[in-house]
Known about the structure:
alpha+beta, SUMF_dom, SUMF_sf, 4 helices, CTDL_fold, Sulfatase-modifying factor enzyme-like domain-containing protein
Amino acid sequence: MKLDINVRLGFFPSLRCLKVFGVLIFSGFFAxxxxxxxxxNLDTVFVGDDGNTEDxxxxxxxxxxxxxxxxxxxxxxxxxxxxxxxxxxxxVLWHQSMSIxxxxxxxxxxxxxxxGQAKHPxxxxxxxxxxxxxxxxxxxxxxxxxxxxxxxxGFYTFSDATTISSQGTRxxxxxxxxxxxxxxxxxxxxxxAYYDPTLNSGSGG
Length: 205
C-alpha cells in the first residue's frame, strides 16, 4: 500500500499542498486508513487507481496508491508534536504567532493551545517544520530531543537545521521497514482533490 502524507499543515496552497507554508498535509504508504500512534491519530483517505494520467493542467499523475491526510493538521496535534520533541526547541519548530502558547524555559518548555483554537489548522509552519513533523510520524511519534531518533531522519534526512541531505522515494514500498510519511506533493494533493475514476468511460480523469 502506498501512503501519501499530505501533511495538511496549512501548507498546501496554504500548507495544504505545495510545500506547506501555512497548512500541513501529509501523505504516505500506510497499512491502514487511520494513522494511529501514541499521542495523536490522524485520519487519512486512500487514493487508488495508480498510474493514472495527468490532468489537462499537467498535474495529478501518480504512479502508486497512497493515503493522504483527510484534514489539515490542527493546533492540538501540532502541540502534541511540540510537547514530544521541543522541550529544548533546537530547530525552532514553534513560532510565537501560532495559536499555541509556550511556557517554561529551554530544556523544560511545554506547549498548550490557545482557547477555542484546538481544532483549527496550525499556521506559521515552514517546510522544514513540516518535514520534521512527517519524520516524527514515520518514527512512531517518539518523545525526546530533536535528533535522528525523532525528527532528523525518516523520509527526510537532515544534516543541519535547513539542509536535507537525502529523502526517501515515493512508491508502494516501505522505507527501512517503515510506512513512509512525507509532505504531500503537488501531484498527490491534486489527484486527491480532483481525480474522478468514473470519468472518460471509467478510465478516470
